[in-house]
Amino acid sequence: MTLMKALRPLLIAALALFGATAPAFTQSGPLRIEITEGVIEPLPFAVPDFVAENGAAADHARNIARVVAADLAGTGLFREIPSSAHISRVSSFDAPVAYGDWRAINAQALITGAVSASGDRIVVKFRLFDIFSGQQMGEGLQFAGTPQSWRRMAHKVADAVYSRITGEGGYFDSRVVFVSEAGPKNARQKRLAVMDYDGANVQYLTDSSSIVLAPRFSPTGDRILYTSYVSGFPRIYVMDVASVQSRALDEQPGTMTFAPRFGPDGRMVVFSLEQGGNTDIYMLDTSSGSRSRLTNSPAIETAPSFSPDGRQIVFESDRSGTQQLYIMPAGGGEPRRISNGAGRYGTPVWSPRGDLIAFTKQHQGRFHIGVMRSDGSEERLLTSSFLDEGPTWAPNGRVIMFTRETAGEGGQPALFSVDISGRNLRRVTTEGSASDPAWSPLLP
Fold it and tell me: Where is the secretion signal located (predicted)?
């Protein structure tokens, strides 16, 4: 499957399916997971294999149901009841739900679906039921696309279920760009790759002839910024995702550019520029090519990240003598320090919600991924290991992905994810070693 096909927009129709009922709010409280910082008992749910409405849809019906179940269970908020425990069997999409059978096995949510396939088009429809109230939650939805996009449709079903039960936006129908690594530590080969958020559908964007670092998606997911050593020195490039064509940005003789990130409008780019031994933060207008300097300090200033409203930039600097986090207006100006704990802070990135900033912290020989408010308050460390670094936010601001590297001469980097509460630490499946993840927005 080509990258263009993978990112081809689906023909999506939010249709009220025949026989759908209103949302279930007649019980004492609707089916809902209240996400707090306390311990959460995962909500039990059931996903029978979707009904294949014709012979060509059989494999897709089974596979889509499995991906939906894996998406939800992978959050740590849901627990799937295995099919071996099911009493009822769903043989028709329009058959009435035997609520008593599902209550008997303690299912609180039931997801049923059907798939039809014809030529280069498949159609997926689903419904979500609140078992204890005995009613359907919201209207059914229908998604249509090519057979190659079946995983995307499964992710969209899971996103809809997740949103209805948690009240938060989903994040399953998204992609992650990262650096695929191979070889020993002293001779690593690195190339850019992109995959579904769960590690499926990996596609390589560059070869391993030169070192690449720090890829970052644009707000619309159609471009990727990254740093490459193809010229012998670090320089920023921008890649068009559909064509996989790249061009250098801001080519200035005698400089090195790195750590780029898009602004929320997709037009402005902030990055670090080193010249004459001094590293400062600059902004580039990709439309006009005009460049402005945002910091002017003998310190090393790098890793800038915009706030979601585009008004502020968080970055790391050693201007105080140690590596710390600062915030300044997006147009430049006097920065204020926000990190105040013991240790060194780096790689800050603003949450898409705007409420938190994720960062890497090094303290007492350990590395941590943490979050804090934009005023530096409520710092929480979510992980601890030999080397954790480079956080990136899921589109809904609920989950953070990062790089974890093991110790020793044979240590290798891998991608992990963790909930912002610090729960549900999981390794992300990749083909070999991987580092520098960057999450896309939800796909169109």
Answer: 1-26
Q: Where are the domains of the chain?
A: 43-166, 175-439
Contacts of 136 (CB under 8 A, 6+ apart): 20, 21, 22, 23, 24, 127, 128, 129, 130
Kind and range of the H or E run holding 226: strand 223-228
User: Is residue 394 helix, strand or coil?
Assistant: coil
Residue 296: C-alpha distances to residues 24, 134, 281, 299, 331 (Å):
58, 63, 8, 9, 13
> Do residues 126 and 12 touch, judged by C-beta distance below 8 A?
no
Split at pLDDT 50, 70, 90, the class of 131 is: very high
From the options 3.40.30.10, 2.120.10.30, 2.60.120.200, 1.10.10.10, give the CATH code of 175-439.
2.120.10.30
283-287 long-range contacts, CB within 8 A, separation 24+: 283/330, 284/249, 284/250, 286/238, 286/249
Question: Of residues 39 and 348, which shows the higher confidence score?
Answer: 348
Domain 43-166: CATH architecture, name and number where available: 3-Layer(aba) Sandwich (3.40)
